[in-house]
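Hi Y.,

Following your request, here is the sequence exactly as I used it, all 350 residues.
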Amino acid sequence: MKMTKNFKNNLITYAIVIAAFIIVQILQSTGNLSSLFKGLLVPICVYVILAVSLNLVVGISGELSLGHAGFMCVGAFASAFFSKCTQQAIPADGLRFFLAILIGAAAAAVFGIVIGIPVLRLKGDYLAIVTLAFGEIIKNVINIFYIGKDSNGFHFSTKDQFSLGMEVDGTVILNGPQGITGVPKNSSFLVGVILILVTLFIVLNLIDSRDGRAIKAIRDNRIAAGSVGINITKYKLMAFTVSAALAGMAGALYSHNLATLQASKFNFNTSILALVFVVLGGIGNIRGSVIAAVVLTALPELLRGLADYRMLIYAIVLIAMMLFNWAPKALEWRERYLGRFFRKSAKEGK
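Below is the corresponding structure, written out as tokens. Let me know if you'd prefer a different format.
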């Protein structure tokens, strides 16, 4: 019965995403979608994937990570570097972009394993501080690298592009703080929705699996979980690595939507923004993360015409969402009225 209920809830989540895609496509085909909102479609998909992946660590695993932007940065630059280098060798945009997404996810997963093995021995504030440091280190390391390519192969430098020693017709791929320019713009709303569905499928099925129950058992009581033979390090690292890989996939989608990719865009604020999506949508609530990411990404841009009142309204919405999800009176009201409605619907369905 529980698995059936979870399966139905998962189908509802998939249906919401698909319905939103269909509505947007209808609005776009009829000319009722503004150019501003069209430009937000891919970023919304990126932040939905980022929020869902972070919720796997914060909500399901119970660990506070503040370095999620670092994994997104790794995925973005790995995929962009691959696309830039193979633009001539792989002329098919679809195949090249698919491989770039896989490479971005794989690179972020590797960093997730390397960082997770020592870091996950910590917990609480210590884990948050170390993951925050990781995100900043990744950003600053990328900023000092210069990589070029000519007929002799790749050239590396940490000084400037003139120190690469390339031939005249050589190409600078990674130009330090200026990042990577000329990345193929292969990202689209359709690809973004497909990646959201893939992310939801991976996360929701992991949560409902035996491994997911072990991860939640560790979150609820680490000592009790260890006493019954659950390998704490294994399952915590599993959740952390899967989350990192999905963040890398979001980075790949993000990098192929920009003319210039710079490491400065993956700063501390990006990690905090993803955490805001998770907290306001409900810690452990995957569907809530999706909705919060969509609303909070689109709202500042949609309110741009209100000038000085834009951020005031945005702050009010944040406070309202926080109260609705976490205030005791709001939780009591939701259980009394909305809970009664859903229980009634379930009885009628039977």
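The mean pLDDT is 85.

Thanks again,
Q.
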